[in-house]
């Protein structure tokens, strides 16, 4: 084997009492695509931050290109030839592509424009250098980020969950780019928890669990099941079967809703229609930024429709569009928002006080005063039933990890025993084991007759959960597709707008 | 070869947990730091620091007469600060307590000014009620524009304080001027029944101090135990969580401003119906602004505010003493107040953040 490009030996990093990485060894060969595989919280991101110089390791050594290396900052990492594309893009939306790149790469605008075009042609990263970033799709923005990294001629490119924001068709294109980059001499560190992806593109994989390396494998020689076992340390539970249901009463109905908010950056919604009945799960697929957050706020009551738009949103048979969030909850509605900190919970407050946020209606108050004993009992029940890992009910919400916080919020909302449950991104940032527990729970609730609406970017999740799927693209919602009769590629076409609504047969009616 | 280039630069890094001990220690440390800095100033000015310390910080406690004056000053500061703190925790920044205080005084004075001959034990309670109403009305102007037009409440309430001061001037130089007052800008002296009864004979401390203590306890229950207080705090800490849970933001703004206005108005009424006994320009001595410092020094916590109000009152009385006995300039008390707030803000910053020395530039490859 040739000498590795990057070699880590015994790398450790802890934050306070939490050990994020312990004794990690990693070798990245030149011209390879190397996967870092692990659940959320396994220490993937920390490890990448150490490699990219964002953080410094507590112990261990790094050898880069045959030389020992110690990085104090990302700027130095870039000088050494290490580039990184983060999950959340750092682009200025009001500037053009070339202006964004000019901020980090020295050079004349005309030269840079030319280089962007050349790179785009060579590596399948086509993007108009003079386009404004706000007008670009998520996939194009990612290309801009990658081009910006390539401008500094890196020898190693780190990609943090690059496919989580892309529709299936764009994923193939990205993979094509990555292969071309590898063949052009760049090594790639590819962080993911999607097993099939890693099997299809990576040459090597390093698997992390609880901050330690649990295996170095060739992912093409193992099936997804093996990889999952190494990742979570046990077998994956089987998906829960959804019992066939005779359709129940309408719990949520939106009829021909057009809405344009005052915010100029918000996506206007047009002609949104959907129905969720008791005992069924409707999923809304689509890439974030296509109107998901606007639609979610309209359903939750965080955005209240003006009187002129009454009779558009019905909950439990009542016109709810003009009601505020509290009044909708009184009708039997519960909601898990996509942002947890600062929306689903108050980070500075204890879990007990965060239970009160929505569960106060469960008689946790007496004479307008908080009944601390009852609130604590509720919180303990939620922590116990939903496996929330926390020191106790008095821990502040901000100290919980994202996955545990999500379990807490989902538990709190389910314990309200709503008639209609709306969950946005149910398993974002939740580890594989907990995510499957959440999905099983949702299916159980559906079987018991709850009406559930799910917004998710993860197609696999929607296919596992939903009876029907509608796709949101550019503020428009497709007609409902029966999940059993639909292939992921079809949804993918809707996600990038390749289908026009008129081409769609009303499959729900046929079902 | 290993080179180390560049200087070490301090950076503020957010602490994962703010320790309780540090939170509790911050106000006393700020007080001590401000005291040291100000004493240094007095030395530079050529004053005797021992005499200043004695006059400022000890004398207020050394006689019952001067301590009762401290209690008298504590009343309005405590009352206003409790009201403001509730709003501040909801992140509604009512900076116009001074104006609401003036309006409270004006409303309360309406009864003795218009009915100077009236008698009966109903008069002073009615004045306190009317004063509360006046403060609330003045605050409601701010609330209305904030909710209706999203006008910044800091600016509106602050500027309305200036309007209130001019309104007071107009009344005292015009319609409400005492006809027998030798043209001084002040109202008639109030009749006996328009005065809040004295609590401790031989001093000027009156029943309103009891009221203030009772309201402090109420504020504690409201903020720590009640669901409405909880909703206000959620709105302050995480506005999006409040909107997610369906807590109405406009309602929270109205409630915060009205509570602050009521408290300040009541304090203003108690001032004219108490130590002053008439409406005069000197009622506006900056209680409304000092109460902002009191509220923050007390950590916006009802119990902490009791302590900080007492400290601030000592500073007022002690500063007066020091002006006489150690010939400090009149600005000295204001400078002390300002430096106290500054020291407190610095202390709080260190409770939440720690200083880290980082290399400005990085080591190159060896």
TrEMBL record, chain A:
GO terms for molecular function: ATP binding; ATP hydrolysis activity. The keyword Ligase does not apply. The keyword Metal-binding does not apply. Residues 6-235, 252-499 form the ABC transporter domain. Keywords: ATP-binding, Nucleotide-binding. Belongs to the ABC transporter superfamily. This is ABC transporter. It comes from Sinorhizobium glycinis.
TrEMBL record, chain B:
InterPro entries: ABC_transp_permease. It holds the Pfam family BPD_transp_2. It comes from the Bacteria. It is a multi-pass membrane protein. GO terms for cellular component: plasma membrane. It comes from Sinorhizobium glycinis. It is found in: Cell membrane. This is Sugar ABC transporter permease. The chain crosses the membrane at residues 20-45, 92-116, 122-147, 154-174, 194-221, 286-319, 331-351. Signal peptide: none annotated. GO terms for molecular function: transmembrane transporter activity. Keywords: Cell membrane, Membrane, Transmembrane, Transmembrane helix.
């Amino acid at each position: 084997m040739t000498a590795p490009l990057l070699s880590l030996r015994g790398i450790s990093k802890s934050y306070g009492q939490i050990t994020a990485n312990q004794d990690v060894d990693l070798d990245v060969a030149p011209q390879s695509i190397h996967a870092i595989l692990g659940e959320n919280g396994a220490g993937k991101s920390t490890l990448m931050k150490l490699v990219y110089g964002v953080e410094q390791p507590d112990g261990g050594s790094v050898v880069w290109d045959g030389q020992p290396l110690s990085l104090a900052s990302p700027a130095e990492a870039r000088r050494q030839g290490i580039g990184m594309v983060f999950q959340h893009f750092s682009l200025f939306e009001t500037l053009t592509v070339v202006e964004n790149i000019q901020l980090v790469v020295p050079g004349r605008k005309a030269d840079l424009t030319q280089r962007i075009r050349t790179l785009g042609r060579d590596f399948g990263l086509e993007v108009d250098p003079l386009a404004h970033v706000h007008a670009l799709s998520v996939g194009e923005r990612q290309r801009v980020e990658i081009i910006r990294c390539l401008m500094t001629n890196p020898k190693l490119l780190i990609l943090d969950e690059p496919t989580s924001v892309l529709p299936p068709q764009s994923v193939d294109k990205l993979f094509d780019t990555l292969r071309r980059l590898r063949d052009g001499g760049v090594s790639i560190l590819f962080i993911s928890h999607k097993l099939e992806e890693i099997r299809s593109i990576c040459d090597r994989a390093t698997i992390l669990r609880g901050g330690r390396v649990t295996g170095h494998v060739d992912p093409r020689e193992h099936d997804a099941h093996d990889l999952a076992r190494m990742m979570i340390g046990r077998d994956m539970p089987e998906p829960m079967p959804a019992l066939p249901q005779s359709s129940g009463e309408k719990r949520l109905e939106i009829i021909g809703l057009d809405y344009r908010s005052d915010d100029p950056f918000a996506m206007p919604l047009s002609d949104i229609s959907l129905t969720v009945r008791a005992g069924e799960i409707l999923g809304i697929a689509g890439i974030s930024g296509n109107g998901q957050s606007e639609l979610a706020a309209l359903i939750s009551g965080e955005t209240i429709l003006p009187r002129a738009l009454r009779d558009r949103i019905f909950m439990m048979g009542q016109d709810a569009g003009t009601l505020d969030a509290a009044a909708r909850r009184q009708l039997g509605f519960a909601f898990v928002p996509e942002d947890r900190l600062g929306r689903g919970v108050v980070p500075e407050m204890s879990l007990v006080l965060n239970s009160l946020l929505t569960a106060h209606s469960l008689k946790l108050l007496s004479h307008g005063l908080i009944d601390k004993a009852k609130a604590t009992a509720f919180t303990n029940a939620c922590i116990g039933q939903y496996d929330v890992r926390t020191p106790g009910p008095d821990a502040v919400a901000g100290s919980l990890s994202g996955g545990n916080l999500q379990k807490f919020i989902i538990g709190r909302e389910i314990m309200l025993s709503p008639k209609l449950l709306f969950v946005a991104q149910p398993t974002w940032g939740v580890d594989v084991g907990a995510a499957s527990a959440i999905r099983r729970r949702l299916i159980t609730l559906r079987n018991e007759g709850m009406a559930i609406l799910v917004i998710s970017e993860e197609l696999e999740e929607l296919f596992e959960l939903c009876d029907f799927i509608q796709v949101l693209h550019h503020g428009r919602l497709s007609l409902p597709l029966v999940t059993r009769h639909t292939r992921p590629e079809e949804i993918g076409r809707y996600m990038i707008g390749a289908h026009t609504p008129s081409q769609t047969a009303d499959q729900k009616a046929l079902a | 070869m290993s080179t180390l280039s560049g200087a070490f630069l301090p950076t503020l890094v957010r602490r994962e947990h703010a320790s309780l001990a540090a939170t509790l220690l911050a106000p006393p440390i700020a007080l001590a730091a401000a005291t040291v800095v100000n004493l240094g100033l007095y030395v530079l000015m050529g004053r005797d620091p021992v005499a200043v310390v004695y006059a400022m910080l000890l004398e207020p406690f050394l006689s019952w007469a001067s301590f009762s004056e401290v209690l008298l000053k504590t009343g309005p500061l405590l009352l206003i600060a409790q009201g403001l703190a509730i709003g501040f925790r909801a992140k509604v920044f009512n900076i116009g307590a001074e104006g609401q205080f003036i309006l409270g005084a004006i409303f309360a004075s309406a009864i003795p000014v218009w009915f100077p001959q009236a008698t009966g034990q109903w008069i002073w309670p009615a004045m306190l009620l009317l004063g509360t109403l006046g403060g609330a009305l003045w605050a409601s102007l701010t609330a209305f524009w904030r909710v209706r037009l999203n006008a910044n409440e800091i600016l509106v309430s602050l500027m309305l304080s200036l309007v209130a001061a001019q309104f007071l001037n107009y009344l005292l130089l015009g319609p409400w001027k005492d006809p027998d007052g030798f043209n001084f800008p002040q109202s008639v002296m109030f009749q006996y029944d328009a005065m809040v009864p004295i609590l401790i004979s031989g001093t000027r401390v009156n029943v309103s101090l009891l009221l203030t203590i009772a309201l402090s306890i109420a504020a504690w229950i409201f903020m720590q135990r009640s669901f409405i207080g909880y909703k206000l705090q959620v709105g302050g800490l995480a506005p999006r969580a409040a909107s997610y849970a369906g807590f109405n933001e406009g309602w929270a703004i109205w409630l915060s401003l009205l509570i602050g206005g009521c408290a300040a108005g009541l304090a203003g009424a108690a001032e004219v119906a108490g130590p002053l006994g008439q409406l005069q320009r000197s009622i506006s001595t900056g209680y409304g602004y000092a109460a902002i410092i009191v509220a923050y020094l007390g950590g916006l916590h009802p119990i902490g505010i009791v302590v900080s109000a007492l400290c601030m009152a000592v500073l007022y009385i002690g500063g007066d003493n020091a002006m006489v006995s150690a010939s400090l300039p009149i600005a000295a008390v204001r400078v002390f107040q300002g430096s106290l707030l500054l020291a407190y803000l610095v202390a709080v910053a260190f409770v939440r953040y720690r200083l880290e020395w980082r290399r400005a530039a990085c080591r190159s490859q060896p």
